[in-house]
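User: Can you help me understand a structure? I only have the sequence.
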Amino acid sequence: MILNFKRHPFYNKIAFPLFILIVVFACNSPKQQLPPELQKTVDHYSHSEADTLKLKAAWFLIKNMNNYYTTDSQELRTHYAFLDTLFKNEKNANQLDSIYKNYLSKHPNISSKKISDKEFIKANYLIQNIDEAFKNWQKPWAKHLSFAQFCDYLLPYRVYDEIVEPWRTIYRKKYSNCFTKNRF
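Assistant: Let's start by predicting it. Here is the structure, written out as tokens:
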């Protein structure tokens, strides 16, 4: 026996109205809201045709942020500031080790919290990262990359859960003399 679904009571009373409700709600649901800083990044590249690829790059980063987070707290920032000072001022490796062990004995449990990169990253950081990545893409050592390769290998603002900092600028300044016309 073949069922005629249009005459079946389940179809008329439940399935069809349910289908219509699902379609209506799906069509009327608000667009996914981005956190304000990410929206600023998207808006920054949305105003110019010249920035079409940069806008795609911004969306690539945003879509891939889900599994990345930043660990932060005032205690942790104080700890990092101590380490920066220690490594800048102390050159003796044995002294470094003993000073650090002493510090850890006084601060055994540094509390921190995980914050999603979607909530933590600032627009100016992402914009600077994207702009610098695009400048690097024009360098002789990166010109051959496709856009997909660029997104995968050159664009990312971080690798794992390291501190979010302007690492491109830091390394460019530190190693710019290595990239002369004759070498790269």
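Now, to help you interpret it: The CA atoms of residues 125 and 166 lie 7 Å apart. The radius of gyration is 26 Å. Let me know which part you'd like to focus on.
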